[in-house]
Specification:
Layout lengths: L4 E5 L2 E5 L1 E4 L3 E5 L5 E8 L4 E7 L4 E8 L2 E8 L3 H15 L4 E2 L4 H13 L15 E3 L6 E3 L15
Parallel strand pairs: 6-9
Antiparallel strand pairs: 1-2, 1-8, 3-4, 4-5, 6-7, 7-8, 10-11
């Protein structure tokens, strides 16, 4: 269980006490009332997607800025702050948050890697695994009835 709000940039966590919206930017404020290091997040078209996990009050932002891809994570201590901040971030960035499960971190980084390869991916909400077919080649979940894997293209068995 976390004991504070955390902003994670370049895999380095920083505590923050609040988040304030300033136009098309989110400012993460430390206990001293000043922005934390790298605590101003521009909410422009460089935000590729926002993945959220309500169970852990976590948002992962996949950023694609001028060919540089990164993932920023934000953990909130309480439900109200989480819901209000996710709403503010999504409205300012013009994105609908994609609800995910506990595999959220690896999913965010796999999206960033695809962007590095020049592949734009469609981000969807987490699904019921019983309604999916697992690719025998790469392990990706695909909708039942798919003939080929949506990730690697391997033929799927019926």
């Amino acid at each position: 269980m976390i004991t504070s709000n955390y902003l994670i940039i370049n895999k380095m966590p920083q505590k923050f006490s609040s988040m304030r919206m300033a136009g098309k930017a989110a400012v993460f404020i430390g206990a001293d009332g000043r922005p934390v290091d790298f605590g101003v997040l521009a909410l422009d078209d460089s935000i590729y997607t926002m993945l959220v996990c309500r169970e852990f009050r976590l948002a992962m932002l996949v950023i694609d800025r001028h060919g540089e891809r990164r993932v920023q994570g934000i953990f909130w201590l309480n439900d109200d702050d989480f819901e209000n901040c996710v709403r503010g971030l999504s409205e300012a960035a013009g994105l609908r948050p994609s609800v995910q499960d506990t595999k959220i971190n690896s999913y965010a980084w796999s999206i960033a890697k695809k962007l590095d390869q020049g592949v734009r991916v469609k981000v969807t909400d987490a699904v019921d695994e019983s309604e999916m077919t697992v690719c025998p080649e790469c392990g990706m979940l695909n909708p039942k009835g798919s003939e080929y894997c949506l990730d690697c293209g391997a033929e799927l068995l019926p």
